[in-house]
């Protein structure tokens, strides 16, 4: 019996960790406790199994492994991007974005839903934090959507799904963590996630368009009296601005590295010039531009400029993710300061939130190092490799099994837990099978985006529940009593978007070039010539 336990200590250890997590114990402490408990058990069982290589002196390596975590510069990007996102959310700039986008798209059916998706993408590209995006859009957009007759399930689904875009659109925090766990650079991970992220935005918009055709009453247009910022030339100007931005981005995606650099810096310079002009040119406040046109320029241009500045420098290799995050945080603070929206209270709350998340990630990393030391000591990595390598279908079978595993785990545990526990075990197997780790990381990132919507523990659903009215409420602008949103409606609203995200995961799996280009250059080894110098 003892020999049987010793031989199967790795799966027992993994199952024990899952039980700890399901019981509700904190992730960091569950990892560290399991690691220490099974280290003691492993040392005692080592004489009964040749596969266990644990010994007491090995425990001393834990200090060095923890110090390696503290010296990891890449992880500094997490508090920087978190600070940038919290500043934009706390200072009301996210609210300005939603209001302007809602007015821009309001005249068409489903316009508010399109606005939420667009702003969700912009917030994702400036915050990288799902909670901030969902809560901000839920507080601002949900009352407006209910006021004008949107279907409750559709409104809930659009807001929660758009908030999860922060998982896959750079500067996503989960992509930073995945890059660290997979041992790849953050820059290529960010660059590879751009096109899949935009495709997710596109498929969300296509779904809303289909809903407006099949069920027009589910997503009506804003009534004329609700379009308070003007129309006409403003809408045309705004549409041209958005179209031009999309064209520049599409052109950038299709060009070589030099063209990419020109595209990014050209767009950044143009956006900066437009913003300066918007603030200084008195003619913008004349009759030639409506209030909406002014809002489009003043509200949309600064976040776009910040996005291009931060991500552009990372993609071009001018700055690391950490340096880009520092620029983003500085840019957000300066934008808030110029707008007069940076009181001490907001700054204090932003710093507090960034510090909390950084400590949360750091403690999980420390716990994962303790856990992995023991898990590798009982040859757990070999057990995982044999388990995954034995799946029929080779690479495709492995990818299908991994995605199914991550999808199921996402229903019960947080994406950070998946990233720190499961990915380090799967990465060596993926590398042995010849899978590009950037592509693998983006696939997993998109899958974990779905975990925010899957019951029973979809965190985006919880965030939505915390801000959506759960009972009748009086709408102050109209004076009407409007029914609240039930939990069942919130859960039902996420189903369609879960299906859409699963489809996108399948697309990225089927077409690797979407995230890693056309592949590596093929070299004909038969034509390679090696000339050695003469011995004379």
Description:
The model is unreliable at 231-244, 246-289 and 519-525 (pLDDT under 50). With 536 residues, the protein is mostly helical. The protein has 24 helices and 2 strands. A two-stranded antiparallel ribbon has the order 1-2. Helix 6 (93-105) crosses helix 8 (130-147). The relative contact order is 0.14. The chain folds into 2 domains: 7-71 and 364-441, no CATH class; 73-360 and 444-516, no CATH class. The radius of gyration is 25 Å and the shape is globular.
Topology of this protein?
Elements lengths: L1 H6 L1 H14 L4 H19 L15 H10 L6 H14 L2 H13 L5 H16 L3 H18 L4 H12 L9 H10 L3 H29 L18 H22 L2 H24 L10 H25 L5 H18 L5 H34 L2 H10 L4 H17 L4 H7 L1 H10 L4 H14 L8 H9 L5 E2 L6 E2 L4 H24 L2 H4 L20
Antiparallel strand pairs: 1-2
Helix pairs in contact: 2-3, 3-16, 4-16, 5-15, 5-16, 6-7, 6-8, 6-14, 7-8, 7-9, 7-11, 8-9, 8-22, 9-22, 9-23, 10-19, 10-21, 11-21, 11-23, 12-13, 12-14, 13-14, 14-15, 16-19, 17-20, 18-21, 21-23
Keywords:
536 residues; mainly alpha; 2 domains; two-stranded antiparallel ribbon; 24 helices; 2 strands; globular
Describe the structure concisely:
The protein is built from 24 helices and two strands. By secondary structure, it is mainly alpha-helical.
